[in-house]
Amino acid sequence: MLLLVTDVFVSYASEDREQAQRLAHAFDQQGWSVWWDRKIVAGQEFDQAIEYELESAKSVVVLWSSRSIASEWVRNEAAVGAQRGVLVPAMIESVKLPLEFRRKQTADLTGWNGELSHSGFRSVCEGVASIIGRAPPQLPDRATPARGHRLRWSTAVIGVALLLCFGVYALGRWPTAGPMPKIQSGGSASTEPSAIPKLSDAVPGPADLVVGTYFGAVLSDSQGNSRSDIALTIVKLGRSTVRVTSDYPRLGTVEVALTQAGNQIVNADGDSPFVVDLERNPPTLLFGPHGKLAYSGSRH
């Protein structure tokens, strides 16, 4: 089971659901993952599920309207986003914002009907992109490129990728193919092993990228309450395997097999969701030992 960090958490009043859905669809077209629908898995506490998504999302977009400024839920979610430094506010109608949020530059989505070229939407995208560390997606050209051009470009990309893969494979395999012959002064060949290291020995594995001590909090627990000031330690067992321990008994000790997915290190298998986001500085960890609780922390 892989647990991926959501790119965008959308905060809105229930009366503005249609506009929130339109924005979520537009974000999806940009290739960003979005949590907005407030669908809760059976057995989860409503507030705990929202708190987990709100604390883990890379950015928080709040939609201000006459309904949302009167909503305690929306104001609290916006406050969490502001405290984390990931808030991107947008107005979907002309309203006077709550005092604590007036100093933040706010995008104007009044009258927006979903156009990707809308200046207010582009402003929101730029705000999200600056926070999550990805450049704003480029709008497509009005003229659709010819099919032959797309085909030639795709073929070139595939060709380069295959060459790179073959090169990496060859570098990884060549030193292990057997000892390289060495000509002695008498003309005979010896079989001294090559001193060229394997590529796998030089490149750090997933475990090397996540080891360290993390400090954070248990956001939700199936058998207890949330808890702060929890330390968690990750030690390397192998190139792609780690042991996770904590001073908090409910977290216990868990061994996790890892793999890399872009700038995230995630669990390769098992029932303990594990995500280290290397884009964050310092890296952040989301961990759910055996799916029984949710921990979030930063490496120190």
First-residue to last-residue Cα separation? 27 Å
- The share of residues in helices is 25-40%
| Average pLDDT reading | 78
Tell me the CATH architecture of the largest domain. 3-Layer(aba) Sandwich
Task: Provide the CATH topology of the largest domain.
Answer: Rossmann fold
Q: Classify the secondary structure makeup into a structural class.
A: alpha+beta
Shape: elongated
At the fourth level of CATH, the homologous superfamily of the largest domain is Toll/interleukin-1 receptor homology (TIR) domain
Give the low-confidence spans: 139-178, 187-191
Give the total of domains: 2
In sequence order, what are the helices and strands, one letter per element?
EHEHEHEEHHEEHHEEEEEEEE
Main sheet specs: 8 strands, antiparallel, barrel
Computed over alpha carbons, the radius of gyration is: 25 Å
CATH class of the largest domain: Alpha Beta
